[in-house]
Amino acid sequence: MSQAQNLIRTLEDNSLSILSESIGDVRAHGGPTLANVSDEDLQVALYTVLLKIIDTLREKASAPSEVKTDTKTIFVAAIRDMMDYIDGQSTYTVGHTRAVTSHVVQMASRAGLSDAEIDDIETAAWIHNIGLINQSQKLAALPRTLTQDELKQARNHTVMGAEMIRPIQFLSHLVPTIRYHHSRFDGGAGTGEPAGENLPLGARLICLADAFQAMLEPRAYRSALTREQALLEVDKGAGAQFDPALVPLAHELNASL
């Protein structure tokens, strides 16, 4: 039996116990920010992730291939499929993660990062919104701007997403990137979060790419911005929401599209 087949069997045989133990781990690491997320929502989120992973592993393991695929590659492929599913839950976010990942990879390449660093940041970009598998994804479809409470709820996906990948050995080093990908460069007003260059570079790149792409997409309460309008907003956020050293990369990205 292959490594992938062994992994599939293990996940299938232990899915319920994994689910039960994972909820406890998420609660333990997530802190008070997850207090308003019910056990039922966590169960749905975690079990959906598990099922998606099992399905993709099974598909990859049964497909003919001349080259053996390692477990990490199979897992990341499963994550990509799952993110397409999550984005597809709202007509306003279809293809969002794919576009953000493309932006991030292009900007990371222009920033002169190594192939290994770009690979890590690309993986982080693919999974940055994994926490949106909970009910906060529905907020994207509201026909108005979000209230402060709703905005806080939506941004809780950074905490949930970080805790969902923490137990995964080959992704655990990306936890800070996922956790802080919505954090402001200037630190905001007394948030106590890292700021400036203390934020992971991957988080700063994703923050910029994610916001830029969101501006290019329509929402129920507004039309999509043009690239010129989006870049103007990005420039306004330089040094506050965004790393000012990375903002010029968004302009280069715009020219390349």
UniProtKB/TrEMBL annotation:
Name the Pfam families for this protein.
HD_5
Q: Which residues cross the membrane?
A: none
Q: From what superkingdom does this record's organism come?
A: Bacteria
Looking up Gene3D superfamilies in the UniProt record yields:
Hypothetical protein af1432
HD-GYP domain location is 71-257
Instruction: Specify the protein name.
Output: HD domain-containing protein
Q: Which organism is it from?
A: Abditibacterium utsteinense
